Structure formats: C-alpha cells, structure tokens
Amino acid sequence: MRGLRFVNSRFALAGALVAALGLWTTPVDTSAQSLRGSRSSMDRQNQMARQHDFTYIETPERVRLFAERGWLVRINDGRNHSLHAVSFPYARPAVQLFIERLSRQYKSACGEELVVTSLTRPQNRQPRNASDRTVHPTGMALDLRYPWNRQCRQWLEGVLLSLERQGVIEATLERHPRHYHIAVFPDYYEGYVETLVSRGVGGPDTREYKVRNGDSLWTIARSHGVSVSELQRANGLRGSRIYAGQVIDVPLGS
Question: CA-CA-CA-CA torsion for 188, 33, 45, 143, nearest 10 degrees?
C-alpha cells in the first residue's frame, strides 16, 4: 500500500483522523503508504488473522454457528450507515465498533451514510475475483462503497490512510468493481479505542464540531468556553493545524 498523494491539502486529511479520533502508537512501516494494495498487505492481514487465532469459515452454516456462539455479531443498519446486498451480515465485534465510529465521523463530514457492501463471506461463497488469501472468511474484514462525491472520497481515503499508518487496519481500493476493502485488527483497534475513551475523546463529556473556513483552534476554543490546550488534549493534537470540514471533539464547559 504505497504512494497515494492528494493535491488539495484541505482534503488530504492525514491529520483528519488524528484530530477527530486520536493517536495510536503501534509500530508500523509508514513508508509511502497508499490504498493500492500489495503482497505485503495481504501478508499482514493473514498474519493478524493467525495472531488472533481466527478460523477461516468454510460455509454459511458455520457462519451462523459462529454467530450463535457469540464469536461473530450481527451488523444491522444504523443511524449513520446502511448495508447493501450483504449476504452474511455478521462480523467480529471490532468490525462493528469500527463501522459505528467511522460512519459517525463520515456522516458528520459528508452528510451521507456510509454504505457497507460485504462482511463475513464463507470460503465457498467467495466471488470469482476474490483473492485466495482474503480474510473475509475470518470475519475481520468489510467492504465499503466507493463515494463518487470527490470531497467525501478524499475525506474517507485520508482517514483510512491515517488509521493504516497507526497500524490498526489495512485498507485497499479495489478496482473491479470500485470499493474499499478493509481488514480490522481487533486487538490493536480496540486498544486504540480504549486509549481514546480513557482520554475522554468522543465520550459523553464532549460534543462534535465541524470546522468551517476561517476557524482556528483559538476561535473554536473561545466560542465554546474552553482553552486551546483542552481542545488539543481532547483530540490528540500536537499542533494547531485544522482543516475545513474536519470534525473535532470539543469538551463541554464546566
């Protein structure tokens, strides 16, 4: 996954996720990442499946068995996301958490639902163009619809790249048909979320704010009765750079 660059810095948003969701410190190779996919990306996905001791589920009956035993959870339509043509609406709990968090941010940034097009797929129900190394049968992967709105697409790709750099997912832009394939690494992703919760990011004592043209941390802090340092701490910001369209968490005033 090497080499994607964005022309317009407002929508590159490598910092969008950092500002909206916080930082993770898993050591990972961050050299020139992109969403093109690679053999090393597939290696990492399969390595993570083995590390989590995930079974590659062979049949629909086994999918239902895993759901009955609580190893997979049912994914339903939500306030900020919907499922389209998903044959087996089940996934690992970390995937459910990922969908809920990403869709909330996506809806705030773009004003539209995040559309999930695939979740757990048993090995005997893979499409013809699927890789024989796909981790969909493990329940740790999902596919997302490709947004044709340029701003939404660039926001989403910036967030996926940022999460990938932090070592909690692997994401690929598939071409035929166009969609995003994402493998969620449960231990790392859930640990990332726990870190945010422990810092109060996105919790009940914060509210979301969508950054507008001309905003700065200072003007946002002043209008909400908090300090710049509180804003930085709530969003994991080391500097003061923010982008129009970015969603940040603002601590509620006392």
Answer: 90
